[in-house]
Amino acid sequence: MIRDQETLNSLLDTVSRFVRDRLVPAEQLVAETDEIPEDIVAEMKAIGLFGLTIPEEYGGLGVTMEEEALLMMEMGKTSPAFRSLFGTTVGIGSQGILIDGTMAQRAAYLPRLATGEIIASFALTEPEAGSDAASLRTTAILDGDHYVINGTKRYITNAPHAGIFTVMARTDLADKGAAGVSAFIVEADRPGISLGKYDKKMGQRGSHTCDVIFENCRVPVANIIGGIPGRGFKTAMKVLEKGRIHIAAMCVGVAARMLDDALHYAMERKQFGQPIAEFQLVQAMLADSKAELYAAQCMTLDAARRRDRGENVSTEASCCKMFASEMCGRVADRAVQIFGGAGYLSDYGIERFYRDVRLFRIYEGTTQIQQIVIARNMVKAAS
Ligand code: COS
Prior knowledge:
This protein has twelve helices and nine strands. It is of the alpha+beta class. The two termini are about 30 Å apart. The site of coenzyme a persulfide has 21 residues, from helix 8 and helix 12.
């Protein structure tokens, strides 16, 4: 759903210019230093990127899912690390509070998230609980008017920068499954929280992940999202469902950037006396990429519109995430192939994208988890 085409066009134009003029020229620097420059972070805040999905009443831009998808398709046209900095705040880190939080919780945290004053980080995954998220072992034991959290969370994006974590922990030790899990808002400066060292990743330098360790970390009972224990797994699933459409849109954006780079390279690079873009085997790679990209774009926008209409998009969100992330991987591979030897050199940037996009097929639910969600929904609907 697009609320006001003119306002959206202006925002899309702002993001597009920001990407082209500020972010693309900084890509190499971010890759080399593993840091996003402070002035760029300040501009992200000024544009309102941290508050994209937070309702206007809490100081955000309150974009719809369709608007968010269109914006992420623009944002994707540069290194994914830039999006990652505000991605956990607009997405998985804040949406639990928005979707299932109490009015008091929303009022307490969303305004500061919307401005980028604090960053939200989503803490679900653990050393022993990844795809099987319901098996998580972090515990939260009631002690008076507090819960005491113990456990380790792994690969937590933006943990080193977080002001709050939304933490999924087991409040009912007798229930080893989803119903024993609650979601908490945990301020990052609470005693009992420590961080592991930065993970050394394959790509996405400038985006930071690490372990978050909770040792007797006391959190007020009032910080359970929604105020009722046992609902945290469902909150996490709802958040991830929305996040999957967001990531699919990012995949479309990054694939468009890689394809554009590959096309321009193919038109300039001459072999056998003509630009390689004139050769049909190169054209096949360009055409296959274009068609798949278009398909992913259509799917993602359709799922986003359906979600805006209030439809259950569990299947569609997983279809988009699976197809768009796999498509993005194939486009990255073809782009490297079209660049040839230059595709293997860091100077040309395409090998960096090749490494960066590998993560899309893994995080916020692997391709295999999306297959499970889709097929299970099919069986359920047919029974
Ligand atoms: N929205 C609302 N509720 C949902 C839901 C959704 N999208 N998906 C599941 N639920 C509910 C189910 O309805 C069920 O509730 P009831 O018991 O009341 O029926 C409950 O949550 C448990 O669901 P389910 O039985 O399907 O849980 P499973 O343990 O079988 O796991 C998968 C389901 C595999 C889909 C889940 O663990 C998953 O998504 N894993 C991947 C996790 C992930 O994406 N990690 C990335 C880390 S963050 S970057």
